[in-house]
Amino acid sequence: MMNLKFIAIAGATALLASSPLSAATFTGEFWDANTGLSSIAGAEAVIAGGAATATFDAAFIDFPNGSTDTYGDGTLLSTFLGGYASNLSGGDTSTLTYSVFRFTGYIDLAAGSNIFAVGSDDGFVLRMNGDTVASYDGNRSFATTTVTSDEGTGPTAFELIYWENGGVTGVEFYVDGELAAPVDGMAAVPVPATLPLLAAGLGGLAVLRRRRKA
After folding, report:
1. Could you tell me which CATH class the domain 2-8+25-183 is placed in?
2. 3-state SS track over 25-38
């Protein structure tokens, strides 16, 4: 009886432990392009051409972080990422010259229209659920493109691609005046999937307890 009780408890504990309780992040990818870039199509061709040079996670898209909008493109990728370089994989010696970044993840949108703002040097494209929301299809000094659009409610998938073509570079992503914050796009799924199994495990404990008393 005790062995079965232990198994039931262990199973319930394992189910809870397997739930995604860690903080959500955005996924960042970096390609060292080694060639001049001037368009969205050119940046996407670099992405399609091979695996990312480096990957990392980030809680916000604000590079370089803080009040500084841009860094010189001779800056190391690790310096550009600041504290997020702690989870950088690859690209240890890469600089920002002729590079492409792609950020993906989920953001939580309020009902109705939202204000999306992307600051970049050089160009970019922002997509929500596969649809283009905002873009700048060319090279520019650091500037911000702002768009008001209704892209749905709740956790919404996005993709932000931007590139650097020499000089200085930086990128920021805001929603309704605040830096976009990541959410778990599957946050609502584990609860109904896990609780019935947990309840079954606890129900098994109750049965064992009644049998032991009988």
Report:
1. mainly beta
2. CEEEEEEECCCCCC
